[in-house]
Amino acid sequence: MARPAQEFFPIEELQTCVNAVLRREGADVLNLGPSDGYPPLKEALLEMLHHDGIAAKDENLLINRWVPAILRPDQQSVRASGRFRDYGNPTYPGAVAIFHGARARCLAVPMRTHAEPGTPLGLDLEALEATLAANRVKLILLTPDFQNPTGTSMPLASRRKVLELAGRHQVPVVEDHIYARLHAREERIPSLKQLDRSNLVIHIDSFAKVAFPGLRVGWIVAPAAAIERLRVVKQTTDLHTDQLAQATLAEFSAPRTFRQAPSRRCARSTRHAWRR
């Protein structure tokens, strides 16, 4: 299982952040909070997204407990539509279980895990194109970076092709971005959301793989109308994400932002654990 090595957790620094939050706004963060997320954490995430080349605004961002749970609010529309969901095969079983629980009809597209001349690693693009042509696909679910469980990353050309196909068939793409920060900065490939010009990519991410997985805080970036719909549905299932966890992560991120140390130490240890 990919997880940060515990010896790299900056426990004392995190404890300082918790204490600072409780002293400054303890009564507020221990009370009920907004469904779309703790505002200072949203500000920190928006800064990080802008640094990543994603032009998101507050209305495009929803914070949730963890990434697979972000998919759950869509179950009502999944049941109503009866259309297919595409995903790379093999893939993270939790996401497939969510869609199966919603009685969605899922189609698996093969993953290429061995390099061959003229065929890139990652999703089989020819199979994806054929699947989209033959079926009324409602959604495509992909992990472009360090795909779980194959560990493959899609090259830039493949990402552009996926977006071309999604645009041609007008199918939204859910991009699971939780492993992408395990890349060294010079190795990082633009995310699907960064490359998206048709507003079809729903970008989901989390602190789980590069910071503190036990805090269970994730987020989604999507068109404002989709975020509003998800927020309303979330209120019926999970009124708000843990306020203390959100405030602690906002405090932890504030002095140097999420992309800087000590998060890099956690990322390096996670990357090592992932490759073991």
Structural class: alpha/beta
- String of helices and strands: HHEHHEHEEHEHEHEEHHH
Number of E-state strands: 8
Radius of gyration: 19 Å
Strand content: 5-15%
| Unreliable runs | 73-86, 257-276
Strand order, sheet with most strands: 1-8-7-6-5-2-3-4
Overall form:
globular
Terminal CA distance reads 10 Å
Mean pLDDT equals: 81
Helix run count: 11
Major sheet size, sense and barrel closure: 8 strands, mixed
Question: What portion of residues is helical?
Answer: 40-55%
Relevant terms:
276 residues; eight-stranded mixed sheet; 14% strand; disordered C terminus
Structural write-up:
With 276 residues, this protein is an alpha/beta fold. Helices cover 43% and strands 14% of the residues. It has 11 helices and 8 strands. The chain has an 8-stranded mixed beta sheet, with helices on both faces. α7 links the parallel β5 (137-142) and β6. The longest helix is centred in the first third of the chain and has 19 residues, at 11-29. The protein is globular and about 60 Å long. The protein starts with 10 loop residues before the first helix and ends with a helix.
